[in-house]
Specification:
With 574 residues, this protein is α/β, with parallel strands linked by helices. The protein contains 24 helices and 15 strands.
């Protein structure tokens, strides 16, 4: 904010300076000076004893002009606008020369033809004893007017000044409404031209292809019968690799406005999902949040999944907007699935009203040990209670088709005491206990067909993979979730910026390992540089052959099918 205040200060300072220049006549048309009499010239410039002179100076054509030198052949002007002509002592060379410049000729005429007028004001012209023929030929009768060569100055016209004032006005308006829109990556292109014009070109191209390949004999308005998967595949076929990789990014950002960093991530890197996070200052008011999500959607080449952690209780991101919502532990204690479903319906209404379509809830961890990070966030301490209550909440949340839920935190934080934000927990249960306790809610809810997304946390599961964090483990992501549980929805990582990951891997390494493991959405990038680093790591892995194009297409397909389920990608009807 201080930087914005400083910009405003400098703006008004510049405006004052322009105004003063304007009042002093700097913003006027450039004109030739009107010939003046010696008396007029003297009075206008308020000078006395300042006379044009022709001075003989041996072997020199240089003129000393005081404070402001204007060199023009052999004529220059000093700081008092007095024209001074310097004629070399070797004037016979001038007599035989044909290169006397017009400016020099004019000055000579001025000096010669006004000798008497100059004498009248006690001005003496000192001439060489012998003038060149060119000079003698121009001897003329006395005249009462003297034409001084105009002093050329670069000046601005009043329209120029007004244009500059208008441009500075645009600056101050942008500062007031959101300065980062022009003080960052997007720059003036955003201010002057608005958002990119290609925000719907991809989907329009797909729709045109559908119309062109309509069933023979059918009318032009008849849609091509197509399943959601076929439609998504058609979109993927029109996407570049950069667009596909961008869809795999779930980014966060700082501040309540559509900043230049956020704009760059959406428009330049084609990111697929955005996290609204109160701790990042993203939520200020109902109107602000609604406007922000709408602007993000309007500038995206494909509809965005806009996510939030709205669990209720201690993790209530919309507390200041909608009031408190009950915690999972409070709902679970009622042992009433109807209350859980009602809570889901309420959360969906709240989120949809702000343009949020993905809730990173419910938590399906089964609490067995105390973990301050998980306090009040789980539905119970038995797999049966967690499965029933989380299932009812998920049903209520998703029944409108506008907001989808996310089961978390696989493989389970119910039996660890370390927060992955701060370190890497070790889950030491046996494989049998994992399947009977921690993984029961996942398996049963997946089988019910109501799960669209699962979040994977960062921990070492010693019974499955004792060396690699779960979010980057092929054995856990592909081996357990994909192959053993048969889950074909979107798998996202918890934030890759947590200490449980950053202590061991760079952003580029973590991103590549996550894709190799089977993750679809990578959470955590908070700036264009973060996104570039992650995409660079994935691209290097593709170049090295450890990630295939088919692997990328599989993830993008799941992400776009998720957006279809949100109602963001309806199949064109004509």
């Amino acid at each position: 904010m201080r930087s914005y205040n400083k910009v405003i200060y400098y703006f008004f300072d510049a405006m004052l300076y322009i105004f003063l220049l304007y009042k002093r006549g700097y913003f006027v048309e450039s004109t030739q000076l009107t010939p003046l009499t010696i008396q007029e010239y003297t009075e206008e410039n308020q000078i006395t004893q300042k006379r044009p002179a022709v001075i003989a100076e041996p072997a020199s054509t240089h003129v000393s002009t005081g404070n402001n030198v204007v060199q023009a052949s052999n004529i220059e002007y000093d700081a008092s606008d007095t024209p001074v002509l310097v004629i070399p002592a070797a004037h016979d060379a001038l007599a035989t020369s044909h290169s006397v410049t017009p400016l020099m000729q004019t000055a000579i005429e001025v000096a010669i033809t006004n000798q008497q007028a100059l004498a009248d004001i006690d001005t003496h012209i000192s001439m060489p004893s012998a003038l060149p023929p060119q000079v003698a030929a121009h001897m003329a009768p006395e005249t009462s007017r003297v034409s001084f060569p105009p002093i050329q100055q670069k000046t601005w016209t009043r329209p120029h000044a007004l244009l500059l004032i208008m441009l500075l006005g645009v600056i101050v308006v942008q500062i007031i409404s959101g300065p980062s829109q022009f003080l960052g990556t997007q720059g003036w292109a955003y201010v002057l031209h608005g958002s990119p014009a290609n925000n719907t070109n991809l989907l329009k191209s797909v729709a045109q292809q559908l119309t062109q390949h309509a069933t023979p004999g059918a009318s032009a308005s008849t849609p091509t019968p197509m399943t959601p998967t076929q439609y998504i595949n058609l979109i993927i076929n029109h996407m570049s690799l950069a667009q596909k990789l961008g869809q795999m990014m779930l980014i966060q950002f700082v501040g309540p406005t559509y900043s230049s960093d956020l704009s760059a991530m959406i428009t330049q890197y084609n990111i697929g999902a955005v996290l609204i996070f109160t701790a990042n200052g993203n939520v200020q008011s109902k109107q602000q949040l609604t406007s922000l999500t709408a602007q993000m959607q309007s500038n995206s080449s494909l509809p965005l999944a806009i996510a939030i952690d709205q669990e209720g209780g201690t993790v209530d991101r919309l507390l200041n907007l909608d009031g408190p919502r009950p915690a999972a532990a409070t709902i679970g204690a009622t042992n009433d699935p109807a209350q859980a479903k009602a809570a889901g319906i309420q959360d969906a209404q709240d989120l949809a009203s702000y343009g949020i379509n993905l809730n990173l809830a419910p938590v399906v961890d089964v609490t067995n040990v105390y973990n301050p990070q998980m306090y009040d966030r789980t539905f119970g301490n038995t797999p049966a209670v967690v499965t029933t209550m989380a299932g009812a909440y998920l049903q209520g949340l998703q029944q409108s088709g506008k907001v989808l839920g996310t089961l978390k935190h696989f493989p389970g934080l119910g039996d660890v005491g370390v927060d992955p934000h701060l370190g890497i927990p070790h889950l030491t249960r046996s494989l049998a206990d994992l399947e009977q306790i921690d993984w029961q809610p996942y398996q049963q809810l997946i089988q019910q067909g109501n799960v669209h997304a699962i979040m994977v946390t960062h921990e070492i599961v010693t019974a499955v993979d004792g060396s690699i964090p779960s979010s980057l483990s092929y054995k856990l992501i592909t081996g357990i979730l994909r192959q053993q549980f048969g889950f074909q929805g979107v798998i996202m990582t918890d934030s890759l910026t947590m200490a449980g990951i950053t202590a061991y891997y760079t952003e580029a390494q973590a991103a590549a390992l996550a894709i190799e493991a089977g993750d679809d959405l990578l959470m955590g990038a908070a700036s264009p540089n973060d996104v570039a680093a992650m995409l660079g790591g994935i691209q290097q892995a593709i170049n090295a052959g450890s990630i295939t194009q088919q692997r990328i297409d599989d993830s993008v397909r799941r992400i776009l099918l998720l957006k279809y389920a949100m109602g963001l990608l309806p199949i064109p009807t004509h």
